[in-house]
Each structure stands twice: as C-alpha cells, then as structure tokens.
Amino acid sequence: MAMNEFRIRSYDGQMDRGGVVELERRCAVGPSDRVFHLFTDSLGDPMAKIRNSPLFKMLVAELDNELVGVIQGSIKTVTIQTASKDLSKVGYILGLRVLPLHRRKGIGLSLVNHLEQWFIDNQVNFAYMATEKDNEASVKLFINKLGYIPFRTPAILVNPVCHRSSHISTNIEIRKLRTDQAELLYRTYMCLADFFPNDVDKILQNNLSLGTWVAYYRADQSRTMFGQNGQVPNNWAMLSVWNTGEVFKLRIGKMPLSWILYVKGFGLIDKVFPCFKVPALADFFDPFGFYFVYGLHCEGPQSGRLVQALFRFVHNMAAVNSMDECKAIVTEVGGYDTWRLHIPHWKLLSCPEDLWCIKALKPEERNTIQEFTKTHPTSKTTKPLFVDPRDI
Ligand SMILES: CC(C)(COP(=O)(O)OP(=O)(O)OC[C@H]1O[C@@H](n2cnc3c(N)ncnc32)[C@H](O)[C@@H]1OP(=O)(O)O)[C@@H](O)C(=O)NCCC(=O)NCCS
C-alpha cells in the first residue's frame, strides 16, 4: 500500500490554532540527560512569538487531516558586515516541531525547505537558527542535511527572582532613558554588533519593551554628558528589558525525586534563614513569566560592577511588579564578554552554549559566511552579538 503524503501549507489562525497548541504540547520533551529543562507555553497563541517581527510566517505539515509538523520564520534587516555592505536581510527559523510518531519521514526537512523558499522569495541573504548543542536531531538536520554552519555559541543565563530586593551600592546611579535617547546610544555604540537590528527603534517603542536603563558611578564627573551628543561617562553600562511573559511562559519539565527533595530543602532553608534569599523553586513548575534583558552594553574598566547593579535593579523591578508574574530574569550573551561574569544567574537553569547556525541563501554570500564563521565563537576578536528579544 502506498504511504500517505504529507502536505505543507500556510498556518490558518481560525482553523489550525488548537491543533498547533496541541502539537506543541505533545512535542514538549526535553533531553533526558538534563536535570532541569525549560519548556515554553505559548498561552494558546502559537503566533505570539513572531508577531512582533516586521515580516513573519508560520507553516504547518498536514497528514490525513492531522497537523503533524509546524515551523515559524521571521525576516528583518540587521548588521552583518561584508566587503560591499553593512546591512543584510536575515530570516530566523524557530518553533520547528514534528509529532514524535511522524519523525524521520522527511517532514522536518520539508518544512525548513519551504520556509527557506519563502525567505528567498523575500530577498533574504542569510537564514539562521539556534538550537541546543545536544539536540542531535536538530543539529544533524540543519548542519549535516541542510548545510547550516555553526557560528556562535552565546550563553543563556537565567536568574530566579526572589521576594526580597538585592542590594545596589549607593555609589551607583541608575537612570531610565527615553526611547529616543536609548536609540541614539544603541546606534552609536552597538550598531556594529553582529545582528544589530536596523529597526531597533521599533523594538524600543514596542509595548513589551519596559525600558532602557544606564548605570554609572555618582563620582564620575562626566556623567552629566550622558545622552547628549553621544558623550558618555568613563565607566557606564546599559540594558533594556522586554516583558516576554506577555507573549509566552516558561516552566520546568519533570524532575527526579532526588531534586524534588533538594528543592523542598531549599524551601525549608528559606523559612528558617530568610536572609539567604533563596527563591521558591517550587514556583517554576507552573508556567511563569520572565523578563528578557537585551541590548546589554558596557564600557570602562570598572563597568562590571555597573552591569551587576543593573541586573540587580531589573531583579528588584520584577520582585515588586507582581502583575507581570515574573519569576526569572533571562539574558543571552555572546562573544568574548568578560562582563558576563557579573551577570547574576543560576547554572542549574542556564544554558552555557546555545548553538547559532547560519546559511547563505544567495550564492554571492557564500564568501561572507566563510569570513563570518572564521573566528572561533569565544575568541577575543569575536564581535559583540545583539540578541533581538523578538527571537526569544
Ligand atoms: C528536529 C525534528 C523537527 C526533526 O524532524 P523530522 O521530521 O523527524 O526530520 P526529518 O525526517 O526531516 O529528518 C531529516 C534529517 O535530519 C536528521 N535527523 C532527524 N532526526 C534525527 C534523529 N533523531 N537523530 C539523528 N538525525 C536526525 C537526519 O539527517 C535526517 O535525515 P535521514 O532521515 O535521511 O537520516 C524533530 O525531531 C522534532 O520535532 N524534535 C523536537 C523539537 C525540536 O528539537 N525542534 C528543533 C528545534 S531547533
């Protein structure tokens, strides 16, 4: 008997919404060798993640009237420096899922091929995607089968929010910027970072963007220059915050018994010694919101402490803002960022190497890819990376 053929088509919000939510639920299985694994919950709206991008698409694979696969993509213009230009159109691939029962039938490959064709139809120069390094199926599909090249391994750092506030030194001033000031600073200091989005103003003005803050030392005489004519203090740091919890939630997958006991122990410590400020880990089994910190930049030999102060500030903001149900601060940092040591995070929940892969969709861009991937991801010469909150 001939095997039934699957069909790839565009997502239809009216018809497919429930089917895709169910498909994502059935695909939520993490690597077996991880104690903690974070899953996403799209809150019943599968398009929510990509909707904030300038151009986006979702495709589904259908077999015998059942949805068996899904993929999403978004297109934007970013900084990728080549010999002839600084800006390139890139297509981001995310949310690829195939039902376990229908894997290894070529559905995943076909979904990516169709999405790449949509990128090509929209004059995209490069397609890129991110995956966990230990996701064998995904790594083999994109690298071995589709010719994607690994080019960055940024770290995803996760810090739980606890109910008590973190101390910020009184020597440090933290100030919120207007979006036009923030845009000016980003275009002045981060525009050469890889993947810096040309529409950074749209990100900063988006309702999900809670704001941009700068930190500097009160004693720094040049601080009054901040934001004017692009002049900055000798040591300073900036970051922006995106309320990702409005779009989707995270939750921890199942945990071994030994860890359940460990977590209960944590709860006890918190009750007996509240001064230890242990977060309630039990909270993470229900879907929780998080703030994503993006556009982190700092300058000056003493700026590490300013980075730390900014993260503490964001933590305190999350702790008091119960409306957002924000239980974690998440950021993704790439390149040779020594100041990443100053970002508070829990190793247990973080991912030290998120694997970013890229592919040239136009033959003339192949040399660029070679240039782009030549430097080792952790080399000191690697350029900073701008992680767009819309890609999270
Ligand atoms: C990754 C995933 C989408 C692959 O879907 P799929 O329909 O099974 O993939 P395909 O059948 O098109 O496989 C194409 C190629 O990918 C590679 N591949 C796919 N699954 C693999 C696996 N489990 N182990 C090793 N290689 C695998 C193979 O090279 C395969 O070609 P082959 O079958 O000729 O050897 C699917 O495993 C899945 O949904 N995983 C869970 C969600 C996920 O990890 N998504 C990726 C996030 S970036």
TrEMBL record:
Domain of life per record: Eukaryota
Residue span, N-acetyltransferase domain: 6-179
PANTHER family membership: ACYL-COA N-ACYLTRANSFERASES (NAT) SUPERFAMILY PROTEIN
One Pfam family here: Acetyltransf_1
Protein name: GNAT domain
MF annotations from Gene Ontology: acyltransferase activity, transferring groups other than amino-acyl groups
